[in-house]
């Protein structure tokens, strides 16, 4: 079957009015919220006296649902030998709204970028960006509120995968994937008006779809291009002017990789979460 959709994207290595270096930064901020531990695993944790004695900090974090989804996936990447080292990056920092925490998050990504930070200068890949330029990135992120937009979509539901799995298997599963796709495709063009859009569909559809949108926002990337200019100039589409102190930057900002998650994969997400939690506990207990 031929593909019927294509994505037309802006060229993030190009800015219309520039005489200086063009920097392009891609950031995968990931999920900002700690994960609620699944009921069955929480029961096992309470009964695990060895874990309480040998690693009380981990024991309390698990019972208080203070584990980030990012941390679970870090363990998976190390176990699969996709990464040799853990990063100090914490998504809660970049979504904090605090300039210094956001800067710390970017410095942590710079020190160990993995696949969550990519930098280009004049279209060529780089592995380093200076502190001064990182501060420019922070100012652009804060002035444009793009992190708040992603955080809003991630927070559109407070349910975890266990809640959604139970809804899906008891109320949604008999409905065909074609019907689910029809609803998702209807919502996608209007997804920015989150509350109104989701409320058009009766439960349990709304809760499942909100969760799928939340998952999409956890995996998306921020694309940012910027360049220092001498004075304000005429702008092309998607370009904006940002003033930082006495300096003026022309910048282009967008969100990419916002892919719709499939309803039929909810069972896979649920059993993956069980495995990831078990692996995380085993890894930090040994």
> What order do the helices and strands follow?
EEHHHEHHHEEHHHHHHEEEH
The main sheet orders its strands as: 5-4-1-6-8-7
Helix content: 40-55%
**Count of separate DSSP helical elements:** 13
- Parts with pLDDT < 50 across at least 5 consecutive residues: 1-6
Number of domains: 1
Overall mean pLDDT stands at 81
How far from one another are the termini?
A: 48 Å
Give the strand content: 5-15%
Over all CA atoms, what is the radius of gyration? Answer: 21 Å
Structural class comes to alpha+beta
Q: Please summarize the sheet with the most strands.
A: 6 strands, antiparallel
Instruction: Identify the quaternary structure here.
Output: single chain
Q: Categorize the overall geometry.
A: globular
What's a concise summary of this model?
This protein has 13 helices and 8 strands. It is an alpha+beta fold. The strands form 2 sheets. The chain has a 6-stranded antiparallel beta sheet. The protein has a two-stranded antiparallel sheet with strand order 2-3.
What does this structure look like?
The chain has about 290 residues and is of the alpha+beta class. The chain has one domain (about 25-285). It has helices at about 40-45, 50-55, 55-65, 70-80, 90-95, 100-110, 130-145, 145-155, 160-170, 175-185, 195-200, 205-220, 265-285, and strands spanning about 25, 35, 65-70, 115-120, 125, 220-230, 240-245, 245-255. The strands form 2 sheets. The chain has a 6-stranded antiparallel sheet with strand order 5-4-1-6-8-7. A two-stranded antiparallel sheet has the order 2-3. The relative contact order is 0.19. Mean pLDDT is about 80; it is low at about 1-5.
């Amino acid at each position: 079957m031929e593909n019927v959709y294509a994505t037309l994207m802006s060229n993030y290595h190009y800015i219309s009015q520039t005489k200086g270096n063009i920097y392009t930064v891609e950031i995968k901020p990931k999920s900002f919220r700690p994960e609620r531990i699944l009921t069955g695993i929480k029961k096992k944790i309470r009964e695990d006296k060895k874990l309480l004695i040998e690693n009380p900090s981990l024991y309390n974090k698990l019972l208080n649902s203070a584990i980030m989804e990012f941390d679970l996936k870090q363990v998976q990447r190390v176990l699969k030998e996709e990464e040799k080292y853990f990063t100090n990056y914490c998504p809660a920092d970049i979504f904090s709204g605090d300039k210094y925490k956001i800067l710390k998050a970017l410095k942590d990504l710079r020190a160990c970028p993995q696949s969550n930070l990519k930098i280009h200068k004049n279209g060529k890949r780089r592995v380093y960006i200076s502190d001064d330029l990182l501060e420019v990135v922070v100012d652009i992120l804060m002035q444009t509120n793009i992190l708040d937009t992603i955080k809003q979509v991630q927070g559109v539901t407070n349910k975890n995968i266990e809640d959604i799995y139970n809804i899906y298997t008891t109320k949604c599963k008999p409905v065909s994937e074609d019907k689910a796709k029809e609803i998702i495709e209807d919502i996608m063009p209007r997804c920015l008006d989150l509350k109104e859009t989701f409320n058009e569909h009766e439960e349990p559809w709304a809760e499942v779809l909100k969760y799928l949108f939340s998952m999409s926002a956890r995996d998306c990337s921020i694309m940012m291009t910027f360049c220092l200019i001498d004075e304000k100039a005429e702008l092309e589409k998607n370009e904006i002017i940002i003033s930082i102190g006495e300096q003026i930057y022309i910048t282009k900002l967008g969100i990419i990789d916002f892919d719709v998650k499939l309803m039929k994969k909810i069972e896979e997400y649920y059993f993956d979460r069980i495995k990831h939690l078990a692996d995380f506990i085993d890894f930090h207990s040994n």
